[in-house]
């Protein structure tokens, strides 16, 4: 696994500091690059907050292929990125819009579906329990993130 994590860093032009350094944002950046986004189209970063900040700036200016929205205003679709708090933080979209550096996590939506009356977005993310992992994010009946615990910060729409 370490050689693959090293590849994520190196393919983005970053120095690999070792697996003790959080690598989830590098994984997301690597996936977006592998999908065809250039560095101009997506801000490859070592921290999720950096590419989210750029996506919010793009949205405000009406430019770029990456846009960011508050979770209550945009229903995630496959290929989008869902950003959430970690370590007990309670950052929101307004905070993300005015801060380039803060601790967070994000994962790529690979499926949106339903099981009976329950809707979900299935995500894949890096450094989830020290591995690449899948999670389900609950959605409401309209397809927006069901954020009862206020842990989600933004949804990035990736238009490749």
UniProtKB/TrEMBL annotation:
Every DUF2272 domain range: 20-147
Q: Which domain of life is it from?
A: Bacteria
Annotated protein name in UniProt: DUF2272 domain-containing protein
Q: Which organism does this sequence originate in? A: Caballeronia sordidicola
